[in-house]
Design goal:
Rossmann fold, alpha/beta, five-stranded parallel sheet, 47% helix, two-stranded antiparallel ribbon
């Protein structure tokens, strides 16, 4: 079967990362993991990801800063970034969008809408690039 999307999961909470990976691989997505901002940037630079999910609170940094770095990178700036965070205040959500995220999903998320929401960003990006 064909791969739907290649997605980088930047999440320090292993059970959450595994749940996201499970939901995505059920839909034939390929996934990679990073548990820190540093590793997330390294993998993003070295891979060809269709989408990056990003937590705000990481052990070595801030997801908002990482998102800004990704959006400033010439090769990564068009890769959609979706925050998946327990930070649920409207100011954090707005800040995530202000630094370039395509979407901001709060934890806990509804599993039935999670993957379709992520894949809609992949489809939108592919349509723009074609």
């Amino acid at each position: 079967m064909n791969r739907v999307a290649k997605i980088l999961i930047v999440e320090d909470d292993t059970p959450v990362a595994m749940m996201i990976a499970y939901l995505l691989t059920r839909e034939k997505c390929e996934v990679a993991f990073a548990h820190t901002a540093k590793k997330g940037m390294q993998l993003a630079e070295g891979g060809n990801f269709d989408l990056i999910t990003l937590d705000v609170d990481l052990p070595d940094g801030n997801g908002f800063k990482l998102c800004s770095r990704l959006k400033e990178h010439s090769r990564l700036c068009d890769t959609p970034v979706v925050f998946v965070s327990a930070r649920c205040c409207i100011e954090d959500q707005q800040h995530g969008l202000d630094v370039g995220a395509a979407d901001y999903i709060t934890k806990p998320f509804e599993t039935f809408e999670f993957v379709p929401r992520l894949l809609s960003h992949v489809r939108q990006t592919k349509e723009v690039l074609c």
